[in-house]
Please model this.
Amino acid sequence: MNRQAEASPGFVWRLVLPEGHVVKDGIFANLSVWESYEALHRFLYRSGHGDYTRRRRRWFDPMAGPTTVLWWVDAGVRPSLDEAAARLDHLRRHGPSTRAFSLLRQFDADGRPSSRGRTRGLPGRA
Model:
């Protein structure tokens, strides 16, 4: 899937960890930057990745609260795992905002809420 993501239109960057995606205590982390929400959405749900997304309950235990966080980054910025964890914590504590939002409730780069749950670009402009 990583090669498919990297070859997908709109892909910018992904964090590569020596230990793979497992960070600690069975927690799975995948941190990437895309040119737009549409590009991310196409990869997540319309490519071969979509089959895995639909069957994720076979491999992952359900977790309370959001498990995915999105936010805007400036061109060239490569976010850290610590920043992602802090933003996920913010989303869980305060709900969607311009600082941290979800796949279902997004904000555009100017901080305006998306009218239909999707924005024209996130997380990260290339």
